[in-house]
Target: PaREP1 domain containing protein
Amino acid sequence: MYLFVVSTEFLERPLPKPTGEGYITARLLEALVETGLALEFLRRGLVRNAAGKAFQAWRAYMAALMRLELEKLKAAAKSEEERRWLESTAVPRLPTTKMKRLSQMLEEVGHAGVLPYTAVALDLHDYQYHGPDPDAALSKYTSREEAARDVVALLRELARRVEAVRARVKWTGELERALAEVRGVLGG
Model:
């Protein structure tokens, strides 16, 4: 599989600075590589590992989207402090604890449906650490199968959304190959 040849090399490279266009491309490629790894873990029956990679893939996608929409987000910000925070923290670090709020902000600037998928990604993040929980106290998933279904649903949506921003970013051959590979594995 192409993704696994590129993944170890790519994931070890430092990210470009968040101020450059290369940052968006790098984060989208990271999202697709993490997607490929999640699918490989699922194939091997490693659902908790797949959940973690699916979360990382969604987080990388959100980071790309935050940078892509930074000017719109800053224009919609409620204060100068929020604008500075978007540039200094939200885009370069994308804190997990702020993913819901950042998803709400992305929805406000035109990315409908990001929030529910972010909720799924965060649920999968919990599942990665706690595993299936019959009482649903530490994890929203009571079985491996439930989590695996959400991993696939999240990754399908991610691939769809990456393809949707294609015309707005510097699209590379690496991105094209990674997306094709992911689509091939996901069956679409």
Observations:
- The two ends are 17 Å apart (CA to CA).
- The first helix runs from residue 2 to 12.
- The chain has one domain: 2-186.
